[in-house]
Amino acid sequence: MPETDPNNFDVIVIGGGPLGLSSAYHLSKRKVRTLVLEQFTYINQLGSSAGVSRQFRIPYPDAYMVKLVKQSMPYWDELQALTPVPLRDKVGTLWFGDPAVQSTEGNIKAAEAALREQDVSYVSLTQAELEQQYHFRNLPENYVGLFQEDGASIDLKATQTTLYDWNRDSPYVELRQEAPATRIRHVHGKYEVTTPQGVFVAEKLVLTPGPYADDVFALLDFGVAATYWSMASAFYRITDPAIRYPTWFVFQNPVGDNGNQFYGFPEVSWNYPGYVRVASDFVMAPLASPDQRTPVPNPRELDYTADWVGRHMTGLEPTPCYTSTCLVALSKIANKELLIDFAPPSVPNHRNVVICTTGWAGKFVPLIGAILADLALDGRTRFDISHFANGNQYFTSRRKSDQ
């Protein structure tokens, strides 16, 4: 590469989690000089969600989401080709529960329709088959399920490590950690980003700050209408090693203050072998800010989860171990979708600022990086993101003249 000003880049990525590293990976493949700024250290546990596993699943209640997951699969294969460490443990996805329930994950019957529309195979299950084949017990008679064989546990740490190693070795990428953005100015058509490690300049920005979105967006005088969930998560010791669960989600109506919706993972070699993780998919008290996060779960949420494990799962000791919390920023869209968009028009050269924020994106990491790189460099992408380009509804101005 020719010599350049070491503090000048083509693109600055703010947020060095999975999506930021994936964006840099795709930018580097296009030989774009890229700086990634991470406020903590790389491959940390302080971003969205929790733990080093995520669910890869194709079932969604909307056909466009099913299509997007299918489109992500070649990108996962590309990333897998870079490392001998398996990035996805294919165990299948099981959705089950009350067929009438509509949750933040969707609805079982709607998911079956979306899978059929996208020509994705699955198996429908009765309550008896759920108990016989998948080791759950004492399920209500009206419960039904679907099993989709391509579901997997994502080794998120290995995924991030693969992306980090690529970017570290790329001549086009510079990685800086413990480098939070503290100021962003638009000067002479470029963005100056101030950090404790210096001032860096680029024509374009990609913002992937995870749950700390508003901390970064405030530097450009806007915010996002979001709520913050800190959900209870724990591991449960396996007492019958012959039993192997898939990744799963149960659809149930709330009971009082118990949101009564849970999801789980199988045993994996990279995260407390001999245990499985089960977490609640509800919160009793949303946070006002990610600064309120704590690693200690809400005891009642944890009790509700452990009680469900004890009553409905076999081969486990229903005592929660290795507890933690799962923090995620969620948009106020009804089904809590991602926002992928340009900055609002109040930001100078707003189409030079690309944003991915809120929602659950672990299953899309390699694909979203490609989408964000396309948007930053080309102003468009061949993937349908029309359902996520809702910034005009959910970005809010912080300029005093606009309030």
| Broad structural category | alpha+beta
Shape: globular
**Biggest sheet, open or closed, and with what strands and sense?**
8 strands, mixed
The overall number of domains is 2
Mean pLDDT over the residues:
94
Tell me the CATH architecture of the largest domain: 2-Layer Sandwich
Instruction: Look at the structure and give the CATH class of the largest domain.
Output: Alpha Beta
The helical percent reads 10-25%
Q: Provide the low-confidence segments as ranges.
A: none
Rg from C-alpha positions? Answer: 21 Å
CATH superfamily of the largest domain: D-Amino Acid Oxidase, subunit A, domain 2
Classify the fold: give the CATH topology of the largest domain. D-Amino Acid Oxidase, Chain A, domain 2
Give me the number of helical elements. Answer: 9
User: What letter string, H or E per element, gives the SSE order?
Assistant: EHEEHEEHEHEEHEEEEHEEEEEHEEEHHE
Number of strands: 21
How far apart the termini lie comes to 47 Å
Portion in beta strands: 25-35%
Tell me what you see in this structure:
The protein is of the alpha+beta class. The chain has two domains: 8-48 and 157-225 and 336-396, FAD/NAD(P)-binding domain (3-Layer(bba) Sandwich); 53-153 and 227-331, D-Amino Acid Oxidase, Chain A, domain 2, CATH 3.30.9. It contains nine helices and 21 strands. It has helices at residues 18-29, 63-80, 108-117, 127-134, 156-169, 213-217, 299-312, 365-378, 391-394, and strands spanning 8-14, 34-37, 53-56, 88-90, 93-97, 123-125, 144-148, 152-155, 173-176, 183-187, 190-195, 198-207, 222-224, 226-237, 247-251, 262-264, 275-280, 321-331, 339-342, 353-357, 395-397. The strands form four sheets. Strands 1, 2, 9, 10, 11, 12, 19 and 20 form an eight-stranded mixed sheet that branches. An eight-stranded mixed sheet has the order 6-7-5-15-16-17-14-18. Helix 1 (18-29) runs parallel beside helix 5, helix 1 (18-29) packs across helix 8 and helix 2 (63-80) crosses helix 8 (365-378). The N and C termini lie far apart (47 Å). The mean pLDDT is 94.
